[in-house]
Amino acid sequence: MYVKVCGLRTEADVATAVEAGADAVGFVFAASPRQIDIPTAQKLIADVPPHVLTVGVFLEQPAGEVRQIATEAGVGMIQLHGDYPRETFAELAGSRLMRATTLTPETDVTVGAYGEEMLLLDSPKAGSGEQWDLTRLTTSRPDGPWLLAGGLTPGNVRAAIEAARPWGVDVSSGVESSRGVKDHGLIRTFVAEAKRDQR
Length: 199
Ligand SMILES: O=C(O)c1ccccc1N[C@@H]1O[C@H](COP(=O)(O)O)[C@@H](O)[C@H]1O
What we know:
This protein is α/β, with parallel strands linked by helices and 199 residues long.
């Protein structure tokens, strides 16, 4: 099970996620209590070992701004939330991309349909800690490298994995003690639970 821990803001957050076995760590450049600036991101990313993917998270920001921030910060992948058209993905081609979307009857759930390497299915309010109705995956479900996000916690991640059978999971709110502040014990428990029975 591929595990991404998102919204990291301190050296201790990064060290904890990496030591816990996270496969990817996320840095939020969108307006959010978890937003970090470029110099801080550069410093944190320098501490991430090469086997762990670094992901920059963006929400409805223009492609030029996304490219500039991602390049300066040095992230390995760009995660795009919002109503981005295929043209924006084409503009950012050359970077590794993750398409973050909600699941509606109209959603194209084919991984790569927009040129992305990974797909993320999230709740309508990204980063809110709200879960969504996973039974919607019975009529339409992706195949390949797709991540489940939205209200996951150490306590519900196993059940969510069994219900949705994702390739990977992504968490932010569920491993925080208060909004924007990571709880290192919860990060360790989340990663262990998500990867349980697979090590
Ligand atoms: O975390 C944020 O503040 C955020 C802001 C803008 C776009 C995406 C954001 N986070 C993403 O939301 C999910 C985690 O959701 P949850 O908090 O666990 O419910 C994850 O993909 C983050 O990258």
